[in-house]
Design brief:
Elements: E1 17-19, E2 25-26, H1 28-37, H2 45-53, E3 56-57, E4 67-71, H3 78-91, E5 97-102, H4 105-120, H5 123-126, E6 129-132, E7 139-142, E8 154-159, E9 172-175, H6 183-194, E10 200-205, H7 213-223, E11 230-234, H8 247-253, H9 263-275, H10 279-287, H11 291-294, H12 301-306, E12 318-325, E13 330-338, E14 344-353, H13 356-368, E15 370-377, H14 386-391, E16 397-399, H15 401-416, E17 420-421, H16 426-433, E18 437-440, E19 443-446, H17 456-487
Parallel strand pairs: 4-10, 4-11, 5-8, 5-9, 9-10, 12-15, 14-17, 15-16
Antiparallel strand pairs: 1-11, 2-3, 6-7, 7-8, 12-13, 13-14, 18-19
Helix pairs in contact: 1-2, 1-3, 2-3, 9-10, 15-17
Length: about 500
C-alpha cells in the first residue's frame, strides 16, 4: 500500500451512480429509526442511505421507485439492507407477502438464517413470528391470532431456477444475486408482479457479468437519466479511468471498508491478484467493475454500443456466409453484407448445438441469395465441416490460423473506425463484450475459450467481414482492369 496516500477512516458512504425518482412523502427515516431501535440492527451510514432512499412514495401512496437497483462489491453488507427492508415491510408496512430469492437454494437458506438471528435478538419481534428452516416453505411467518388460521404475513425464501418467475407475486420481491437473473425469468414474472397494486422489487447484486442483461438494462436506465420510477445506487470505480492499486479507488467502491473489512485485507487481495495476473478478477470482485470492462475485452463496450443500428439492413443479397464451431459443439452461421451507406453489417442467422441443421442452413442461404462466398476457420473445430459442405455442393474458403488472426485484427479496426454496424443481437453482444485476446505469433486472436459467452458469433462475424471485404475488393479490381483495357 502506498504510504504517502492518506486514506479515509471508511469507504465512501454515497454511491458513484445515484439515481432517485421525485417523491411526495417517505417512510425512509422511519425505517432507519425502527431498524436501529426496535430490530436492534447497527447499520452503517451507507446502509441507512440505501434504506432511506428506496422507501419514498408518490402522492397516491404508491412507491415512487417500484424498481430499486443496488450494486455493491461483495463482503460490504448488502444483506443487512435486505434484512432491514424485509422486517420493516412485515412488521411496520404490514406487507402480506415478501419473497426473497437467490440464485441458489443454499444462498436463500443462508439469507433466512441471518434474518432468523436478527429476529432472535429482539423479543419484540420473535414473539410475533415463527421461523421455518426446513426445506418445505422455509421462511418467517406471522403467528395468526387464532390457531389453525393461515399466516396473514410471511417472508418466503426461494431459489430461482431456469425461467421460473411466474410464482413471484408479492408485495416486496428481493432478487438477490441479480447478476444471474435471466431475461426469460423477468418476462415470466412481470405479469404476476404487475397484478399487485403497489409492489416493489429490489435488484441486489455485485457487479454484473457480460450475460447480466436485465441488471445491465437497469443500469443503462440510470445512466440515461430514466428515473421516473427507478432508484439505482452503485458503488464502483469509473471503469474507463481507474488504477486498481490505488487505495483511494478501493474507498470509492467499498463503503464498508473500515467497518466490515480492513484496508490491509484489500491490499492483500490486490497483491495476490496482481501476482496471479488476475487484476480483472480483483476489479470485478472489489472495485465493482463489470465483467465486460474487467475482462479487458478487445473491443470497448462504448464503441460496440455506438455501432448498434437496430433498423439497419443489408441492402442487397450479395453477401458472405461464415461459419464457426466451438469445442463445446456450439455453431454459429453469420451473414455479412453492405448497408446503404457503405458500412459492413453482420447478422447471426443460426446459433445452436451442432447438428445437420448447420449444413442445411448454409445450403439454404446459398440457394436463396447471391452469395459471394462461404468461409470458415479450417484450423479450428469448424474445419471438420469442410467435407460435409462440399458434399452438398457448397464451395468454402478455408481460413488458416494466420488469416484468422488477420481477420480478428481487421474486425476490431472496422468497429473502432465506425465502419461496421450491427442490429443488437444478444448472442453477438455477449461474445464481443467477453472477447478477450490472446497472442498467436506476432499477431493476436479473439480467444474462443470463454466461460461466460459463446464466442462462435464473434469468430464467424470476424471471418465474414474479412472475406466480404476481400471479395468486394476483388470485384472492384476486376472492374478497374476491364475499364483500363477498354480505354486504351
Amino acid at each position: 500500500m502506498t504510504s504517502a496516500l492518506v486514506l479515509p477512516d471508511t469507504g465512501v458512504q454515497t454511491p458513484r451512480i445515484d439515481v432517485h425518482p421525485l417523491f411526495f412523502s417517505s417512510v425512509g427515516e422511519d425505517a432507519v429509526s425502527w431498524t436501529h431501535e426496535v430490530a436492534g440492527m447497527s447499520l452503517f451510514p451507507w446502509q441507512d442511505y440505501v434504506l432511506e432512499n428506496m422507501l419514498t412514495m408518490k402522492q397516491d401512496g404508491r412507491w415512487a421507485a417500484p424498481d430499486v437497483g443496488l450494486i455493491v462489491p461483495r463482503q460490504n453488507g448488502k444483506g443487512e439492507i435486505i434484512q432491514a427492508r424485509e422486517l420493516f415491510g412485515m412488521f411496520m408496512l404490514r406487507e402480506k407477502k415478501i419473497i426473497h430469492t437467490a440464485h441458489e437454494f443454499k444462498s436463500a437458506k443462508e439469507g433466512l438464517s441471518k434474518l432468523q438471528n436478527v429476529i432472535a435478538r429482539s423479543p419484540e419481534l420473535s414473539e410475533k413470528v415463527q421461523v421455518k428452516t426446513g426445506n418445505t416453505e422455509p421462511g418467517v411467518y406471522w403467528i395468526p391470532e387464532k390457531r389453525g388460521e393461515p399466516s396473514p404475513r410471511m417472508i418466503q425464501f426461494l431459489a430461482r431456477s431456469g425461467g421460473s418467475g411466474r410464482g413471484f407475486s408479492c408485495d416486496f420481491l428481493v432478487m438477490d444475486e441479480a447478476f444471474a437473473v435471466t431475461m426469460e425469468m423477468v418476462d415470466a414474472m412481470e405479469p404476476t408482479m404487475g397484478a399487485v397494486p403497489n409492489a416493489q422489487t429490489l435488484w441486489a447484486s455485485s457487479a454484473g457479468f457480460a450475460y447480466s442483461h436485465h441488471l445491465a438494462a437497469l443500469r443503462k436506465r440510470a445512466f440515461d437519466g430514466d428515473n421516473d420510477d427507478l432508484a439505482f445506487m452503485e458503488w464502483s470505480v469509473d471503469e474507463d479511468d481507474f488504477d486498481p492499486g490505488d487505495p483511494r479507488e478501493w474507498a470509492k467502491a467499498n463503503p464498508s471498508a473500515g467497518y466490515l473489512m480492513s484496508w490491509d485485507f484489500l491490499n492483500r487481495r490486490f497483491k495476490t491478484s496482481k501476482a496471479a495476473d488476475n487484476l480483472a478478477g480483483f476489479a470485478r470482485e472489489h472495485l465493482g467493475v463489470w465483467e465486460m470492462f474487467a475482462a479487458n475485452s478487445e473491443i470497448p463496450e462504448s464503441k460496440w454500443r455506438k455501432a448498434r443500428m437496430s433498423s439497419s439492413e443489408i441492402v442487397d443479397d450479395r453477401v458472405v456466409v461464415s461459419l464457426d464451431v466451438s469445442a463445446a459443439r456450439r455453431a454459429s452461421v453469420v451473414v455479412t453484407g453492405a448497408t446503404a451507406d457503405g458500412s459492413v453489417q453482420s447478422e447471426v442467422v443460426f446459433n445452436d448445438e451442432v447438428s445437420p441443421d448447420v449444413v442445411a442452413t448454409v445450403r439454404s442461404l446459398v440457394d436463396r441469395w447471391d452469395v459471394l462466398g462461404v468461409c470458415l476457420d479450417a484450423s479450428g473445430p469448424a474445419g471438420q465441416w469442410l467435407s460435409a459442405l462440399s458434399e452438398v455442393g457448397v464451395e468454402v474458403k478455408p481460413f488458416g490460423s494466420r488469416m484468422v488472426a488477420q481477420a480478428d485484427g481487421g474486425f476490431k479496426e472496422k468497429v473502432l473506425s465506425g465502419r461496421f454496424v450491427h442490429v443488437g443481437q444478444k448472442i453477438l453482444d455477449h461474445a464481443v463484450l467477453a472477447g478477450v485476446s490472446k497472442p498467436t505469433g506476432d499477431l493476436w486472436v479473439f480467444d474462443r475459450n470463454s466461460d461466460i459467452a459463446d464466442m462462435t458469433p464473434l469468430k464467424a462475424a470476424s471471418l465474414g467481414v474479412s472475406h466480404f471485404e476481400f471479395l468486394i475488393g476483388q470485384e472492384v479490381r476486376h472492374l478497374e482492369t476491364a475499364e483500363e483495357s477498354w480505354f486504351f
